[in-house]
Amino acid sequence: MHEVYLDYNGSSPLDPRVAEAMMPALTGRTGNASSVHRFGQRQAAAVEDARERVAALVDASPSGVVFCAGATEANNLALIGLAEGAPAERNRIVISAVEHASVRKPAQWLHEQGKAKVDVVGVAQGGYVDLDELEALLGPDVLAVSVMAANSETGVLNPVREVAQLVQAVGAVFHCDATQMVGRLPCSLSDAPIDLLSLSGHKIGGPGGVGALVGTRRSLARLRPVTHGGGHERGLRSGSLNVAGIVGLGTAAHLAKKERDSESARVEALRDRLVEGLRAELAGVHENGDPDRRLPNTASLRFEGADAEAMVFNMDPVAVSTGSACNSGSIEPSQVLLAMGFSRDEAFESVRFSLGRFTTETEIDTALQQTIKAVKYVRGMTRGDSQCD
Ligand code: PMP
Contact, 206 vs 67, CB < 8 A? Predict the structure, then answer.
């Protein structure tokens, strides 16, 4: 049986066209993009080309793109950078309860360091941020609000435009971790409008370890650097540029802009076929999160009475994910599902299928077959408590 990769939200395969575009920067060219000699300038030109392509994907100005080492760094730069540059009267940050760890942890760190107070806005059972609760938390002391565009575990979309309006009405900065949304659905800095947006190469068919924080001139001016050195990227991020990675990110962004709509329609049909096939064959299959407002490639499903870790193990060679995290020797349920009101047991029965560019119909058939087999098998076992090795 062929391996089937249905964990695109974890990391998407590198598109061979991206790999090809990266080759000259990896093998043929040399030079530091900051150097004035012809070698350096060739690298700098490749970086500027990529900058334009990344900006075009999210309707931003190229001068608003700060390349960094992925969305984790972009999120850290946004939150910590804002807090470091904040006026004394704005000392509160609001994040949603379902943010990625790379937003939650820097916010927590800022709180512990006494650099900012942090409030958490809850989500409805459908998984999207509660706008009334958000509005009640906002005031003139709010520095920034960080709400993701689409959740990595459930694929649920947040009402980004409404969030932006509420946040900007109190003069705060709206940071949006759009890592999962970019390349799958239109995501525009000017439409929403978003002040600061994070994105990552390896979620859009590009390489890992490269991403960007994209902002308006005004919002970038409110940041202070988190890494200190040569100030290569707009004075906000230091370190010699990862030219090959940036070229890869630029090419991935270019392809995503061109192919996003047709690809998402194709992938959505495959995702729906998978979900319908599972529901036709198995009882007790539930979709987590509002199915009418989620990414076209994602299905977070709960299989009543089937332990997700055991299922994933038994689905091999089909690769899917659980939202559980292994901490200090015991498995913790998905924080995202708990925030949506699921019980621990329900969270432990949930599996995420995430599809993408290279997913085929045959793969979906294999996934159907393996999932059905695994659910039946696991439901037949007595559930014991999982332990991490
Ligand atoms: N934000 C979200 C929503 C993500 O899904 C991820 C990756 N899992 C990240 C941030 C971190 O991205 P990176 O791996 O580029 O640091």
Answer: no
